Amino acid sequence: DGELWVIVKDVDVQLLQYHKTSSLTFSIEDGPQASQTVPHVHIHIIPERKEILRKMVKYMMRSMSKKEN
């Protein structure tokens, strides 16, 4: 494994334990077409839980509804 991925896997374990979840989303951004906004490759590690996902979906639905009106 590359150095960056070794660090990511270590952070992965710590986030799973801290947030008491079993799922993470990884987003690797490298280049403008990948939505990279800073001039270096980086990885977002996002803990996922059902209740968080539900809140996000509700928020998105409300936001979309407001835009339509």
From TrEMBL:
Classification of source organism: Eukaryota, Viridiplantae, Streptophyta, Embryophyta, Tracheophyta
Residue positions of motif Histidine triad motif: 40-44
Pfam family, one: HIT
InterPro entries from the UniProt entry: Bis(5'-adenosyl)-TPase_reg, HIT-like, HIT-like_sf
GO MF terms held by the record: adenylylsulfatase activity; bis(5'-nucleosyl)-tetraphosphatase (asymmetrical) activity
Name of the molecule in the record: Os09g0246250 protein
Residue intervals of the HIT domain: 1-55
UniProt xrefs under Gene3D superfamilies: HIT-like
Coiled-coil regions, chain positions: none
